[in-house]
Design goal:
Elements (H helix, E strand, L loop, with lengths): L20 H8 L8 H5 L13 H4 L11 E11 L11 E15 L4 E15 L2 E8 L4 H13 L16 H7 L7 E2 L5 E23 L3 E22 L2 E2 L7 E22 L8 E7 L3 E14 L1 E4 L4 E4 L7 E6 L7 E8 L3 E10 L3 E11 L4 E5 L5 E3 L1 H10 L2 E14 L2 E10 L26 E4 L2 E11 L3 E11 L1 E5 L13 E4 L2 E11 L1
Antiparallel strand pairs: 1-2, 1-27, 2-3, 3-6, 4-6, 5-8, 6-7, 7-9, 9-10, 9-11, 10-16, 11-14, 11-15, 12-13, 15-18, 16-17, 17-20, 18-19, 20-21, 21-23, 22-25, 23-24, 24-27, 25-26
Length: 520
């Protein structure tokens, strides 16, 4: 791994910043389905079938198939699967997934109706918690020590290090007594991680659509996304000094990402055969241009206290005594803060669906998005926004295109009751050789604020649902099981001299939603 020269930060920049492709992908990737219970029950495969307000983001032309005014609201609950945190309350959450309305202006000419629609809908659920533990001789402290040595080329001596060093994770670790070559780690010493994330990615979509001759349908949707991501990581490691004293320590990292983004979606649906019910759809979605802010708060709990006069960390032999060390407090003047912009990839969707009489409907859909093309901008010393080309190169190395396939069916045993089922397969965006390298030369990563990362598997979604229709009123229920696993690494073991074993994590999630609506 090459050495780097840490760039000087401008007067308005904060002394430590960290943003990586893993975190960017977590906040903007929408590898899930949300919306009305009918939409979810059919696995979101309604891009060609339309006639549901949640198609506003899948294929905007589907809104044109609604020939009446429509108002709907969706809420429910989700809970985690097998690998939830020790506190099960962390894994169960109420959800408010959707509320929207369609106003249909009907006409007797070739343009049968023009519709306006507004819909609030969830796009991604960040709620997740897991606990993992392993025994290994690999140490988080050794990895961080090696990174600091490579960055400053004078490990073991504070001479020549800038003052900003002590507002970084390197400085936090050193003043907390972790950089100590008298401490060794046994293969039986435990490492553990408790990670809890909260929040969601939500969108407000405004749609204009039209129906031409009941054969050609066109729609345009303007979307405004809102990001609210919060994650807390509690890492604990046990080591032993040469005198046999246990030198365990705990590291807590709090991350908050908030902001907004905008995108535009254009969709078309065609009935290729005038007397047939087959529908073919196509959607193009522009990148979402996000403007986000990142805040980070870090602390270490060790058996050492910092002797400022001597400039060394001193071990306290008192049993059960720990000292808390902080590098950034959210109310401190040294907040780790970064404003930046992310441009997500273009998305294209091809859709097909049909109905058989009035008792059966089916739909299939394919989506392509190259997350390796996600780009990042940040303010430079002159207040302008510039593309981070180094960061883009790293993203290309770590992330790859995502392919999504959705399928769904609806059966009506009687005219007022519908039974639904759906399936999604969504490929992982992580390349086989992906790993988090915090020692990377670019301004957004001047200093690391965390070392952990997770490589995710493909996603499978299984859905089912039931619905009831009256003349004006309708009600739907849907169940969704989202299955995904991950390989969690507390750090990359390049500098630890011992391989850090991955901790397998089950990220499966269950949810149930109910939709109430009126159509008039």
């Amino acid at each position: 791994m090459k050495k780097i020269i840490l760039s000087a930060l401008s007067a308005f920049s904060i002394v430590a910043m960290a943003q990586d492709p893993y975190l960017n992908n977590t906040t903007v990737n929408t590898s899930d389905i949300f919306g009305t219970s009918r939409f979810v029950g059919m696995g979101g495969a309604m891009g060609a079938l339309g006639a549901d307000i949640s198609a506003i983001s899948s294929n905007p032309a589907g809104i044109a198939m609604i020939s009446k005014n429509d108002i709907s609201l969706t809420a429910g609950a989700s809970w985690l699967g097998n690998n939830s945190a020790r506190n099960m309350a962390d894994g169960t959450h109420a959800m408010f997934d959707q509320i929207g309305a369609v106003v249909s202006f009907r006409n007797s000419g070739r343009i049968r109706n023009v519709n306006l629609a507004v819909n609030y809908q969830k796009k991604a659920n960040y709620n997740m918690s897991f606990f993992g533990e392993t025994a290994t001789a690999a140490s988080w402290a050794d990895q961080l020590w090696g990174l600091a040595d490579e960055a400053y080329d004078n490990r073991g001596s504070l001479y020549g290090r800038p003052d900003t060093y002590f507002q970084t994770l390197y400085g936090l670790a050193e003043t907390s007594g972790l950089f100590n070559n008298s401490i060794v780690k046994s293969p039986t010493d435990p490492n553990s991680t408790l990670s809890v994330s909260r929040g969601s990615l939500n969108a407000v979509d405004v749609n204009l659509s039209m129906n031409v001759d009941n054969r050609y349908f066109f729609g345009l949707t303007l979307g405004v996304d809102n990001v609210d991501y919060r994650r807390g990581t509690d890492y604990w490691e046990q080591r032993t000094d040469r005198a046999g004293n246990i030198q365990d320590f705990g590291y807590i990292n709090e991350q908050i990402i908030t902001g907004q983004g905008v995108n535009v979606k254009f969709g078309a649906i065609v009935r290729p055969f005038e007397e047939g019910t087959l529908r073919v759809g196509f959607t193009v979605e522009t990148p979402t241009w996000y403007k986000l802010s990142y805040v980070d708060d870090q602390s270490l709990s060790t058996k050492y206290y910092w002797d400022s006069k001597a400039g060394v960390a001193v071990y306290d032999h008192a049993p059960g005594k720990y000292y808390d060390h902080y590098v950034y407090g959210l109310s401190d003047s040294y907040i780790n803060y970064l404003e930046y912009r992310i441009t997500s990839p273009w998305k294209v969707r091809a859709q097909m669906g049909s109905t058989v009489s009035t008792c059966f409907a089916w739909g299939v859909e394919y989506e392509y998005a190259n997350y390796g093309g996600t780009s990042m901008r940040y303010p430079d010393a002159y207040g302008s926004s510039v593309i981070d080309n180094d960061f883009k190169d790293m993203t290309v190395r770590m992330l790859k295109p995502q392919h999504s396939v959705r399928a769904g069916i609806e059966v009506k045993p009687v005219s007022s009751v519908s039974l639904r089922a759906g399936y999604n397969y969504i490929t992982s965006t992580t390349t086989p050789k992906s790993f988090w390298d915090p020692f990377f030369s670019n301004n957004a990563l001047s200093y690391p604020t965390g070392l952990d990362y997770m490589n995710l598997s493909d996603v499978q979604l299984f859905t089912c649902g039931v619905g009831y229709r009256h003349k004006l009123f309708y009600a739907d229920l849907a169940y969704k099981y989202r299955h995904q696993t991950g390989m969690y690494y507390a750090f990359d073991s390049f500098y630890s001299n011992v391989d850090m074993a991955a901790i397998p994590v089950d990220l499966s999630r269950h949810s149930i939603t109910a939709t109430l609506g009126i159509r008039f």
